[in-house]
Amino acid sequence: MKIIRLITAILGGYLLSSLLTVSLTLVLPFSNKAESVVLASMLSFTFWLLFILYSYSSISIKKLLIQLAVVSVLLFLINSYFLEVKA
After folding, report:
1. Which parts of the chain sit beneath pLDDT 70?
2. What pLDDT, on a 0 to 100 scale, did the predictor assign at position 2?
3. Per residue, what are the HEC states of the chain?
4. What is the pLDDT, as a whole number, of residue 87?
5. How far apart are CA 47 and CA 59, in angstroms?
6. What is the pTM of this model?
7. Distance (Å, rounded) from C-alpha 36 to C-alpha 22?
8. Would you state the pLDDT for residue 83?
């Protein structure tokens, strides 16, 4: 079970932080998009670390995987339909 938690923490955290980076890049109110990209990229490392710490908290692995799936799908839908990111 610890290997599954480790893989979930690393890969799930990367997935979540990349989705949040795309969202923040499009939402931040800078006139220059390069500033938005840089700030969102720097914040992504914080999000990744927070998810890794959260995944090792006292939450069960099933709840963690369900929460990761729900948040990832919601962020994907927000990026795809509301912020209109074309893949």
Report:
1. 85-87
2. 86
3. CHHHHHHHHHHHHHHHHHHHHHHHHHHCCCCCHHHHHHHHHHHHHHHHHHHHHHHCCCCCHHHHHHHHHHHHHHHHHHHHHHCCCCC
4. 59
5. 18
6. 0.85
7. 10
8. 77
Token readout for 22 is: 């795309």
Cα(80)–Cα(7) distance, integer angstroms: 26
Instruction: For residue 64, count other CB atoms closer than 10 A to its CB.
Output: 20
How many whole angstroms separate alpha carbon 81 and alpha carbon 63?
Answer: 27
What dihedral angle (degrees, nearest 10) is formed by the CA atoms of 62, 66, 68, 72? 160
- Cα(42)–Cα(8) distance, integer angstroms: 22
